[in-house]
Design a protein that fits this description.
Blueprint: H1 7-22, H2 31-40, H3 48-54, E1 56-59, H4 65-70, E2 75-78, H5 88-100, E3 107-110, E4 112-114, E5 117-118, H6 134-160, E6 164-165, H7 189-205, E7 211-215, E8 230-231, H8 235-252, E9 256-259, E10 263-264, H9 277-286, E11 292-295, H10 309-316, E12 321-323, H11 326-338, H12 344-358
Parallel strand pairs: 1-2, 1-12, 2-3, 3-6, 7-9, 8-10, 9-11
Antiparallel strand pairs: 4-5
Helix pairs in contact: 1-2, 3-11, 3-12, 6-7, 7-8
Amino acid sequence: MIRRISMAAAAAAAMLLFTSCGNDAAEQPTAETEAAVTEAAAVTDMTIEEKVAQLFMVRCDDANMDAILEKQPGGIVMFGVDFEGLTKDEVKDKIESYKDACVIEPIISVDEEGGTVVRVSSNPNLAGEKYQNPRYYYELGGIEALAQNAAEKSDLLADLGITMNLAPVADVSTDPDDFIYDRALGEDAATTAEYVSAVVGAMKEHGMMSCLKHFPGYGGNVDTHTGIAIDDRPLDSFYENDFVPFEAGIEAGADAVLVAHNIVNSIDSTQPASISGPVHEILREELGYDGIIMTDDMSMEAMAQYETPYTKAVLAGNDMVIVTDFEAAYNEVLGAVKDGTIPESTIDAAVERILEAKGY
């Protein structure tokens, strides 16, 4: 069992060790800080059950939080209903109770994109007004205004105890008829890349983890919340267009990349990108991404027809899986590890990336 240490304390301890190694004049690490970093990073000391639980970003469920927290998930994703009617202090207390219940502090995430997706700023107790979509700020003041907005949002979320904003939307969409258009910047690939880079940088400077979405690029596809989306675009179009903002975000230090449920025929015509090995290979091997890869919400209708979806998600290369039915997902993956379907080394690699992103 890894002893509890907060993400902030672990990061501070790690920084102390780093600076001490390179500067004789720096304060030397104490035995306690060395132990904190060592113990917090000791994946080999974790049980299989503890490691499997780290793989899940679990939908917050007030009626079932005791059971969820008992399994010690790697993350908790909160929706608008989880903030509705609450004051700032009530939100802070709620989030702190989740962190206190876990040995390894969970990532607390939200979708605060602006525009149609505003989980936090939709509550007037938490923000003076709802944040607008990226295009609004771009038209108001260009990339600088977008970076300023990202910084403001990050400060608000961090003050509440939230550690990851599932943003920015890195999809390239210039057609107002596209499903994703209202959530995207609405500009070409080069401008979207500039936007993504600036926002990721601003979020990092203001202590907020970022998540690029929706890899490999949503394009003009239909909404996967309500059904299957099949993308027939040629592979070259992804390299020349859709991948460009993701590459910029990766270069800027994005903490996570979220993979869509779209079926991209030119990469893998047999299954959605979120559970496709070839899609993840492009992200890891060709784009050189070494941070957390996570699925989109596995409760979306596009995934309804697939058997053992959580096992497929882990085998495809996801480090974290966004789930609503945590018990079913946890039991499926745990069983797959125990029967050898999922190699334990695969779990270990994922958990190492998760702990590193958390600051352990």
